[in-house]
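We now fix the convention by which a protein and its fold are recorded. Think of the row as the fold of the chain written in a discrete alphabet. Here is one such record, which you should read through line by line.
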Amino acid sequence: MNLKEIFLNLVKEYGYLGIFIIGFSEPIFQPFPVEIFITIALLLGLNWFLVLIISTVASNLGAMVTYFLAKRFGEGLIIKLVGEDNFKKASEFLEKYGILGVLIVSFTPIPFEAICWVCGLFEMPFNKYMIAVFISRLIRHGTVILLYLLYKGVTA
């Protein structure tokens, strides 16, 4: 069983707890956007508001862990986890956009976890980092949920 199947089963079997685990792990190591699993959770009938709150809070908690792991263990670990190419892209992106980059990355192909790791490595001001993470996850997760609700309303 691969990681994607494990996460699918987490959502199917454990619902909100599954969303929490996936949301928490996204900024740390996992390669799949949590939005895939948010959509599955909604299709399974989970409450959209609870899914939004849980996924956003979990992503923020995971982003905290990532920040401090990066600060503690440095570039070598980051490259092992996200790859050298993603590390370079994230570093260049943050160098260019700073804290705004954390918000912008939500709408780019740069993996979210790469940005989180680089923010910790470069010791971006923690409070600003967490505010940017919260806003970016709320917008990204909220957009997916809004699109689902609009589609559901149109097809209902």
